[in-house]
Write a structure and sequence with these properties.
Elements: E1 10-14, E2 17-21, E3 44-52, E4 55-62, E5 73-76, E6 81-84, E7 88-89, E8 92-93, E9 98-100, E10 111-118, E11 140-144, E12 156-165, E13 174-178, E14 184-189, E15 197-202
Parallel strand pairs: 5-11
Antiparallel strand pairs: 1-2, 3-4, 4-9, 5-6, 7-8, 10-11, 10-12, 12-13, 14-15
Length: about 200
């Protein structure tokens, strides 16, 4: 049987037989080298200092992720609007932007802590997290001034990152710290009069 050259292999032939070589036959394996970080779910991105209403403020975005298969909204405290992280406009991704106002910073650490907040359905069977996007218990990402924000029966708080500034009233530099780097599955356990407890696993 005659062996012909083909894509993906070379061969050698001698009186002792024929050998196929399928290791890097014509060119090196394709590799993708880039300096661009592909990101991950719930990554705080596109942080910038802009002028708004005559003041310097920080704006940021959060890459889309899920909590129990629900895509959270981004809570823009400054405008009072909430928009899903995976918003698409006219077929083009159009992620929302949030602005941090002074009340969302810790006065001591000059840091705003970015939390993923979620709550159970208000009535039995108290499904968690609540899947009504128009309700405040629907999963939402936003800035808070509490370095440690305690859970309640109404809301769970998971710190996904933080944004620290040099000045709350007129920031010129910022530092982003990331704590969560994947989508999550969570469970809520409520026993008697004890405060509900929340457990998370990355998926």
């Amino acid at each position: 049987m005659s062996i012909q050259p083909g894509v993906g292999y070379t061969f050698t032939s001698s009186s002792q037989g024929t050998n196929l070589n399928i290791e890097k036959p014509w060119a090196p394996w394709t590799t993708y080298a880039t300096t661009e970080d592909p990101g991950h779910p719930f990554k705080i991105v596109n942080v910038q200092i802009v002028t708004s209403g005559g003041s310097q403020v920080v704006r940021y975005q959060v890459q889309s992720g899920t909590l129990n298969n629900l895509v959270p909204v981004l809570d823009d405290h400054a405008s009072g609007t909430t928009v899903k992280l995976d918003r698409v406009t006219s077929g083009v991704p159009n992620p929302p932007t949030a602005q941090l106002d002074p009340a969302q910073y810790n006065g001591t650490t000059k840091t705003s802590y970015i939390y993923l907040r979620a709550g159970p359905k208000p009535s039995a069977p108290f499904d968690y997290p609540f899947n009504d996007v128009s309700n405040e218990r629907y999963p939402a990402v936003g800035g808070y001034n509490g370095e440690s924000t305690p859970d309640t029966d109404i809301f769970s708080y998971l710190k996904i990152g933080s944004i620290a500034v040099d000045s709350i009233s007129a920031p010129t530099v910022f530092t982003v710290t990331q704590f969560v780097n994947g989508s999550l599955w969570a469970d809520r356990i409520k026993l008697g009069t004890e405060t509900a407890r929340y457990y998370y696993a990355r998926i």
